[in-house]
Amino acid sequence: MRRISRITVAGAATASLALALSACGGTSTSSGSSESKEGKGLAIAYDVGGKGDQSFNDAAFAGLEKAKKEFGYETADVEPTDGETDADKEQRLVSLAKQGYNPIVGVGYAYASAVKGAAEKFPDTTFGIVDDATVEAKNVADLVFSEEQASYLAGVAAAKSTKTDVVGFVGGVDIPLIHKFRAGFEQGVKDTDPKVKVISQFLTQTAEEGGFSSPDKGKSAAEGQIEKKADVVYAAAGLSGQGVIEAAAANKVWAIGVDSDQYQQEALAKYKDSILTSAMKDVAKAVYNLAKSVEDGKPATGIVKGDLKTGEVSLSNSNPKFADDAELQKAIETAKEKIISGEIKVKSS
């Protein structure tokens, strides 16, 4: 069951065949052609917001789709449910393991306890968790990213693009992970132009309050920042970020997207001219790489980190107004080189 109604990606329903819904959420499975291998492969369990968030969860699904196409095996993707507990999440992962899926990825830090519990019960199955670095087990890969580095570059872009000297940051939930986005962004802005003011706001204290799944909350927060003269607003808020982008478009200011290249998202097409860039992390690549490591017989475990140096965090260049701005691109490239060399050390809190 979806947490809320959401903008859906055209054609996404054809990506998998529906199975029966259980108390642990709706599951879709998909398989390759008649030449598919025996057995089951990658399964993912979505974070709040579920499939169709145009961001974090959809990036994980893209990784699943690539693995399914390349390895020709059956895959599964499972939606979250309203008000679920850690025990519900663990049961979801256990159910996938019992069915023979391998690897199994929990998308989001909220799966930490569930991944740990399921991994203990199924030591021969490889588990992954995106955005967590606390699950220490021989059969678990912590797929983490230097979000603060991409956010720093987003701050450079914001400082170079503002005309009012006021920019905004909207975080979905007040947690350490989202603090990384804010810290990098604020540092990038200040290092580029100290006179630019940053207005920062978190939508909720907990994910259960809808910080990652409420476009209306994102829209309201962005409107409040725009009223205070912000003309560039960066959202790190999952599905709620759609509301930030909508508010930016309505008020003819810039939005900066997150996780995926939101300029390219079909469901956001009518707002894309207001999306300056997106601070991306390649969740799709991380999920696919874990599946490949299992397929190759050498499962990845421990902390697997993506950053600017590996190319797994970056800024998108899809908007021509952004890509063709030579001065802006030079500033971003210079900052990127200094981060990679260690000359700039980006704060994470």
UniProtKB/TrEMBL annotation:
Principal place of residence? membrane
Instruction: Answer yes or no on keyword Transcription.
Output: no
* Superkingdom to which the source organism belongs: Bacteria
Report the locations given in the UniProt record: Cell membrane
Q: Could you tell me the keywords of this UniProt record?
A: Cell membrane, Lipoprotein, Membrane, Signal
Q: Which family does it belong to?
A: Belongs to the BMP lipoprotein family.
| Record's protein name | ABC transporter substrate-binding protein
